[in-house]
Design goal:
With 351 residues, this protein is of the alpha/beta class. It contains twelve helices and twelve strands. The chain has a domain at 4-193 and 223-251 and 291-313: NAD(P)-binding Rossmann-like Domain (Rossmann fold, 3-Layer(aba) Sandwich), CATH 3.40.50.720. It has helices spanning 13-25, 65-75, 89-94, 96-118, 156-175, 197-206, 226-239, 256-270, 300-306, 314-327, 329-335, 339-348, and strands at residues 4-8, 30-35, 55-59, 79-82, 126-132, 179-184, 186-188, 211-214, 220-225, 245-248, 253-255, 282-285. The strands form three sheets. The protein has a seven-stranded parallel sheet with strand order 3-2-1-4-5-6-10, sandwiched between helices. A three-stranded mixed sheet has the order 7-9-11. Strands 8-12 form a two-stranded parallel sheet. The longest helix is centred in the first third of the chain and has 23 residues, at 96-118. The chain binds nicotinamide-adenine-dinucleotide and 2'deoxy-thymidine-5'-diphospho-alpha-D-glucose. Residues 87-89, 132-134, 185-186, 196-197, 200, 212-214, 219, 221, 256, 288, 295 line the site of 2'deoxy-thymidine-5'-diphospho-alpha-D-glucose.
């Protein structure tokens, strides 16, 4: 089936993996990547597919409602996979309004544009919103987030994502817009901006810089390889039931400190350093404000109803990820020059 699919945020970390998957897997469909190219958006991520006939990049801001409306008329999108967002919790603490603008207003602009363009002819149409497990808040030592866990966001980032999820459901319930939402746990893999834990620490280990562990490093995250998330998005886009929510997770919980020790050990080995060398870089710093203790996802609905499951064991995924950053020094150099240095100073110096 030929479809015109709009993917927002396709130059970012997860978005670039989704764009590549769709361009390769659906040659009969046209894939439009709409991205503002903020600090987190990088067209280098898509060099290998940029010349493909079924791919087009559009530079633009989802906060500009009129621009988005015109795009729908021009390119006749029948499917939307919405990933564009401000995505880093620490930045949301420093500048919440940016997160309200992109994550909330931007999402409502897209919903309005889809509603206006599709009118009441929803046959074959889908608005798919990519969300996060952080909307559910924080778990204690036991239990898992399910699709019916009550929302309880704690950071400006998760509050903005929760708000956008509510708008997506409201447009389904009020206007009949065909929507689906997925809430995923922490992703890791190639092309992640080195402000997030794993690429930041890989880069710092490599450069013998301190590893800033927030608080005691006891917080727990459930890590999923990014290509497994992209595969889940493909499955949900094609087989998901309209109006439903699907949780996506790796069933792979780690305390930050244990995960960091694995990174140190694997990197000592790869860099030919004596075991224990990189662990000496661990530095405990002031905790993140409102730091959620534990995230863990129950993805059994997605596994049972749509047949998805993660393909990679963590040990394999983390090796592949470290190798990617070690083999892509130019990519790291490009994204850590300029503005990144100011960001790093503001976030970490004196913490
Ligand atoms: P990212 O920060 O790497 O990429 C975000 C992309 O959105 C960038 O390319 C950026 O240029 C673009 N963008 C930002 N503001 C925009 C605007 N106003 N208009 C158009 N484009 C804009 O983020 P990511 O980690 O790839 O996350 C993608 C989505 O997945 C987000 O919605 C995030 O909430 C969600 N998510 C992320 C994770 C994770 O672990 N990274 C887990 C679950 C869900
Ligand atoms: O759970 C899904 C979410 O995962 C996504 O919605 C977010 O977009 C994504 O950024 C991620 O959020 P986290 O806050 O969990 O990821 P981050 O990589 O920032 O941090 C992971 C853990 O590591 C967290 O407990 C904070 C800690 N940390 C992070 C950084 C950057 C440190 O101890 N030191 C650091 O320097």
């Amino acid at each position: 089936m030929k479809r015109n699919i709009l993917i927002t945020g396709g130059a970012g970390f997860i978005g670039s993996h989704v764009v590549r998957l769709f361009v390769n897997k659906y040659p009969e469909s046209m894939i439009y990547n709409l991205d503002k190219l903020t600090y987190a958006g990088n067209l280098e991520n898509l060099k290998d597919i940029e010349d493909r006939e079924n791919y087009m990049f559009i530079k633009g801001d989802i906060v500009d409602g009129e621009f988005i409306r015109v795009l729908f008329d021009k390119y006749k999108f029948d499917g939307v996979i919405h990933l564009a967002a401000e995505s880093h919790v620490d930045r949301s603490i420093a500048n919440p309004m940016e997160f309200v603008m992109t994550n909330v207003i931007g999402t409502v602009n897209l919903l309005n544009a889809a509603k206006a363009y599709w009118k009441d002819d929803f046959e074959g149409k889908l608005f798919y919103h990519i969300s996060t497990d952080e909307v559910y808040g924080s778990l204690g030592e036991e239990g898992l987030f399910t699709e019916t866990t009550a929302y309880d966001p704690h950071s400006p980032y998760s509050a903005a994502k929760a708000s956008s999820d509510h708008f997506v459901r409201a447009y389904h319930d009020t206007f009949g817009l065909p929507t689906v939402i997925s809430n995923c746990s922490n992703n890791y893999g190639a092309n992640q901006f080195p402000e997030k834990l794993i690429p930041l620490f890989i880069n710092n280990i490599k450069n013998n810089k301190p590893l800033p562990v927030y608080g005691k490093g006891e917080n727990v995250r459930d890590w999923l390889y990014v290509e497994d998330h992209a595969n889940a998005i493909d499955v949900i886009f094609n087989k998901g039931k309209i109006g439903e929510t699907y949780n996506i997770g790796g069933n792979n919980e780690w305390t930050n400190i244990d995960l960091i020790k694995v990174l140190c050990k694997v990197m000592d080995n790869k860099l030919g350093r004596e075991e224990g060398t990189s662990e000496k870089l661990i530095t405990f710093v002031k905790d993140r404000a409102g730091h959620d203790l534990r995230y863990a996802i129950d993805s059994s609905k997605l596994q049972k109803e749509l047949g998805w499951k993660p393909s990679l064991q963590f040990e394999e995924g983390i090796e592949k990820t470290i190798d990617w950053y070690l083999n892509n020094q130019e990519w790291l150099d490009n994204v850590t020059s300029g503005e990144y240095k100011n960001y790093y100073k503001e976030m970490y110096v004196g913490r």
